[in-house]
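Handout, section B. The chain below has 166 residues.
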Amino acid sequence: MDEVVVIRRGGPADAEAIRALVEAAYTKWIPLIGRLPTPMQADYAASVLAHRFDLLRAGADLAALIETQAEGDHLLIVNVAVHPAFQGRGFGTRLLGLAEDIAAEAGLARLRLYTNKKYVANLRLYASLGYGVEREELYAGPGRTRDDDITVHMVKEIAGIGLPAA
């Protein structure tokens, strides 16, 4: 496809479009985990005020997003979502690369994210991008109905950040 791809910062006027994209991206996981995925439970009107959102548009369409928040010594990737119509085109990987740039510009030495253990393809993608498993724990949020609902916390160190100058 030859459409123009643009990434821009999101804001309050984007909250409804963000919610719709997240719903489209995460609905497929409901049968697998037996509940609404955490991103589908968020209040995006509030989230756009508290977190950074970078929105990737492909042509006229909102195709993907990444939601981040600086926390102490790391950048937390709260959510990365790609609309099903745009999956498989590298947009998620591109946004994860942007998160590295955001962290580096802020002088943060690592990235953190969390995902469900049943999202095997996502775990594979994150591992291929240099994220390692930090820990696993039972999902403690609302709606847990299964004892195998495991949250996997992952971390990636950013090369050169926080190291003394040579």
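Note. The CA atoms of residues 8 and 15 lie 14 Å apart. Compare this with the example in section A.
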